[in-house]
Amino acid sequence: METKLTLRLNKRVIDMAKDYAHNHNISLSKMVESYLESITKQKAVATEISPLVESLSGVIKLDENFNYRKDYSNHLAEKYK
Fold first, then answer.
1. Each residue of 14-50: pLDDT tens digit?
2. In the chain, what are the helix, strand and coil shares in percent, each to the nearest 5?
3. Is 62 inside any structural domain?
4. Domain that holds residue 33
5. Domain count, the chain
């Protein structure tokens, strides 16, 4: 079932999108539909947590001030000395 949607966008953005759609032989409506479908699918996949991961959640308690990026950076520096 298709439904009409009205969007208010900057004219420059609309013009660029129309040019892009024309150059790729796709309708602007199809392009927007594909984009919206792709971002909503990614979000749904990203939120799925396996039972194993769920069971491991909270197993390790770290200090609030723990800087995992700095720790990993130190690990890599040590590894590649």
1. 999 999 999 999 999 999 999 998 888 866 556 778 8
2. 65, 0, 35
3. yes
4. 11-79
5. 1
